[in-house]
Amino acid sequence: MSVTGSAGALWLDSPHWAEFIATYLFLGGVSGGAYLTSTWASLMKHLMDEQNWLSRLLLARSDDRAHRCACAETARWGSLIGVLGIAVGGVALLMHLGAPLRALTFPVLFTNFGSWLVIGTWVIVLFAVWAVLETLWLHFGAELQGASGMSLFPRKILSWFDGVMPWRTDRGITWLIDTIADATRPPSRLWGGLRIIGGVLSITLIVYTAMLLSDVTVVQFWTRPYLPFIFLMSGVSTGISAALLGTVLSGGALTRANHRFCLTDDAIIVVELVGIGLLLSFLSSSPNMGAQASLTALFDTYQLLFVGGVLAFGTIIPVILSLTITVLHEFTHFEENPMGARLLTGGYATKYVLVLIGGFLLRYVVLMAAVKSPLAVQGV
Amino acid sequence: MAQEWGFYFDPEKCIGCSACQVACKNRHGVDPGPVDWRRVETVSQGEFPDYEETTVSISCMHCADAPCENVCPTGAINKRDSDGIVTVDQDKCIGCKYCGWACPFGAPQYGDDGLMQKCNLCLGEGPGSGSGQPTKKTADNGGTKPACVDTCVGGALEAGPISDLLDGVSQAAAERFGQGSSSANVIVEPTTSDGGMGPADITTPETGD
Q: What is its EC number (chain B) (predicted)?
């Protein structure tokens, strides 16, 4: 029965999830998006080596050394962020739970496979396995000994441990992991197949973070298909931003790899904005009082976070910033002087940071502005 | 399913004293504070001089198709086949609060331990006490009345097998319940003081479907 304005209504408090779950949802999206970015960067690097019709179509020129290095760095950053994101996100989820240790027995305890929490848990587990293996194979191996690149900092940390530990030998932790990576690294075609499966898993992970919410049908703000679509776009966008922020830190800001990923990110952000617009339009046209209350929350209580944080600083300004950098980068000689290069690098980094902040704020306001449809008490 | 239990509520008889709320807390040892398995809410409408307030007493509705059970990852929430009462096994609950979002009535509550607790129609005493208990018996058959029903001073609340409850309600209330506007197992008596606006009803909200 629909809720009408002529009836009294009971509003129920429902702020069951807040910053921990927002962090979990955000990092789930970032992890999935970063893994996808890593896979795409690996493909680009592979195509540069192959020089076939697809590489010509995608202009993967083998003579661009900086592009090749940036692709390698992006691939490594992406897989690493995939692992770190899902690990920290998992901790954030556990911190929210009433019985976190009990939740760790999920293989036995989680029996309701109709619940998105159970589906998502297994998606996370599978994704984590894929991301860890990808990180192992990209960051470790005998051929990477002595290699440079900021993305390789995990092996540098392990090498440092090998050097300072009292039991140090020539064959330390790094050697052990290198050996495991070389022994387990699959041949190229199989690895490609595994990456495709990983890509499907990462998209499933991103979409899951929204399906978890949109399964709650008494919250119209979380309705399908709008929220899953918005989260998918935001997840991929924030994943690209996180991975490419790493590439920028590695010195790859002015490479074709970064430039292309940045423009791809812009296109995704624009599509995400369309999705947000459609959701707001749906809410504003809905007679549901909960939908109206969510709209009021977005543009009143959480106006600063939503309008300022998500829409302005999280999406619109990054796109404007990115397009400005692109114009300066492509059509001027701005990058040829050191100050110009630093400004462009800073611009890219700022854009990516803003997108990440916007992505987190999006999850936060999606949780905080969610209002359940009120109970109708007719005839009072 | 055998006899499915539910509640009956007559707003005309409710005086808003909150005795049901307090009795529930007492029987189940729920500390003073925001956790309420049953609560009395005031719904207002209109403006002076055509202003009216109605009090409603609500708790878990032991829904026929319980959304809390559907989303619970561990199966801690169980809609019992034997009597239709929705119980929670706190030994399985991980405190994710997903049920709190899914429930349209705000029934799931979370104590200091972060685990879900809610009305179990006094199958036992204390959080999680309903899980694993034998089939609920009526007071006539040696069972205990729920504390809220036992304490209600105006006779506004009743609990029992739905079929038994329907025997004693008005035709309008029975018809409204039979129309199945929601899956909540609560029969609400119509009010007559609204000048013909229609019967009072606590309905599930419009969903996003």
A: 1.2.1.2
Q: Give me the torsion for CA of A352, A354, A360, A364, rounded to 10°.
A: -160
What count of Cα atoms within 13 Å lies in the side-chain half-sphere of residue B93? 28
Domain boundaries of chain B, sorted by first residue: 5-188
Confidence tier at A171 by pLDDT (50, 70, 90): confident
Q: Locate the chain A residue with the closest alpha carbon to B198.
A: A379
CA distance A197 to A203: 10
How many domains would you assign to chain A? 1
With a threshold of 0.95, tell me whether the complex ipTM lies above it: no
Pick B54's closest partner by Cβ from A8, A106, A370: A8
Domain that holds residue A278: 16-141+185-369
User: Does A281 reside within a domain?
Assistant: yes
Of A244, A274, A273, A277, give the one whose Cα is nearest residue A259. A244
pLDDT tens digits for range A267-278: 999 999 999 999
- With a cut of 60, say whether residue B201 has pLDDT above it: no
The yes-or-no verdict on residue A1 having pLDDT over 50 is no
Q: What is the CATH number of the domain that holds A284?
A: 1.20.1630.10
Examine residue A380 and state whether it is found in any structural domain, yes or no.
no
Residues of chain A in contact with residue B92, where contact means CB-CB under 8 angstroms, are 102, 109
Please tell me the distance in Å from B12's CA to the nearest CA on chain A: 10
